[in-house]
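Q: What would this chain look like folded?
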Amino acid sequence: MNSLLKTSALLGLLAMASCKQKSQEQQTTTDSTIAQVKVDSTNMFPKETDYQITVQMPGTFHQGQVPLDSDKKSWVGIFQTSKGFELRATKIALEMVHDEMIDETPEAKTGIQINIAQKDTCLLLIESQSYLKDHVIAPLTLSKTEFYPSDAVEFEYLGVKYKLFAVGKKEIAKEDPNQILVTDYTLSISFTKEGKNYTNVLLRQPRFDTKIPTVQFAGDIDGDGIVDLVLDAATYYNDINSTLYLSKIAKGTQGLTIAGGFTAGVD
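A: My prediction, written as structure tokens:
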């Protein structure tokens, strides 16, 4: 079974769901002033070594992409319900299924399917933490979810004003005039809360070929009144790299910090 067949559908739902709810007034810009953030293409961020907790996407995956002890862990999930979005505790079960791309015989079952206990749609699974409590997540719409270099969006969420912006280089690929090549890329967020200014790098990547960073979900996941984010940072169109950023565990001058991520692909 295609490892991204079900997961890709969830990613689309996740992105669309984040855009269905109305938020406060926003402004989308292409801003040359954001070049003040220095791009360092030699220092890719985040790396797997930066992850603090385990994050998992629901769906069906190749062998080796899901730890076989995942069903032994405690999880919370971001759920889309008929009333909006919620963070709530959940249980998962792993099922071995036929992988159409890998398995050579009809009887073989090397694929791993993650089944969720709740009937509501689960957008993301997060390893349970003491600071992640069940609660309704206030909705947020971003007028822009894909960020090319020089793109920016300003928005207000729960009384705090934010700016999400990207810098880097963008050019038409020589081998394919229909393809945009992005290099030296950095995505950052800035905001002010209680008189303190924060500007944090969320993502730094030397090159994107067939995919551009996308905000999959935005809202107060950890319940502290600051926006949290789920980004897809994959560089290839048929891969996923869902990364979770939380504010509650941020330290010092950080407003948001990388919490965890999950990567899977067809190769």
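The chain has one helix and 17 strands.
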